[in-house]
Amino acid sequence: SNSNSNSESVRSSISVSHTGSIKPEMKFLIALACLLAVAAANPLDSYILNGQNAALGQFPWMAKISGCSASVLNKRTILTAAHCVCNRAPSSVEVGTVRAGRGTSYRVSNTYIYPGYPTGSGCAVVRDYDLAVLKTSSDIAFNSNVQPIALFSGSEPSAGSAIISMGYGGDHNGISNVLNYAETTLTRSGCGSAYFCSSRQPNSIYFGDSGGPMVYRSGSTYYQLGVNSGISSTTSLYANVVRYASFINRYT
Fold it and tell me: Which of 54, 105, 142, 167 is deepest in the core (most CB within 10 A)?
């Protein structure tokens, strides 16, 4: 595909690379997560396992799209996971709330999926590059509950660094669409360069938290380090935004 044109949209024809690929057993489980995340009627929409409820304004960069989570990068740019939008581009994005349906919605005018990620019928076959950028048709109004998050740059944090993952979803009793978060630490063993990982014990992302941000705190500032992508039996996986920053920055 032509990476300099709108052919990178949700219906583009794109090639697949296996650089920094992940283990086969992880691919199977992430594929399952993809199928569940894009099925809006699925009762297991998603939840942060053993997470905490977020307070309004605690994570003002959070955004919600159909079936998934996302993050605000600037007044017109939203970042999410490719598997959330590869079969159907979202029509809107919601911001400024910890409970879905109570925030402010903006129309999505363009969807750009990383070249190399399958679309359409191949959507659930998980590859690297699980990233997508959405553009809104009007400026997002910033306030105390809606603010952008900067992408992390520089040397990647080492294993053992503290991180926070977050997303909208349900709990063990069903769908609640409340923003939850989990504090955990980075692990790098078996992840490959395309992903960051963390242990799923005692808490982790789960189905449908996909697309939400994994953040790293440096001093008093939070930076987005990854995008919630999927799980294996022991590991949570986050697409590495440092590795693919050039794609993201092309549309910001």
Answer: 167
- For residues 158 and 166, give the distance between their C-alpha atoms in angstroms, rounded to a whole number: 20
Which residues, at least 6 apart from 133, have a Cβ–Cβ distance to it below 8 Å? 77, 78, 79, 111, 112, 247, 248, 251, 252
Residues whose CB is less than 8 angstroms from the CB of residue 181 and which lie 6 or more positions away in sequence, other chains included:
48, 51, 52, 54, 58, 59, 164, 165, 166
**42 vs 26: CA distance, rounded Å:** 22
Run means of pLDDT, 10 residues per run, the chain, 252 residues: 38 31 44 39 38 91 94 99 91 96 98 89 70 98 98 92 86 68 86 83 58 94 93 81 95 94
Does residue 156 contact residue 47 with C-beta atoms inside 8 Å? no
Both tokens assigned to 13: 């024809």
Domain extents in the chain: 52-251
Which contiguous run of DSSP H or E holds residue 16? Answer: none
* Class of domain 52-251 as given by CATH: mainly beta
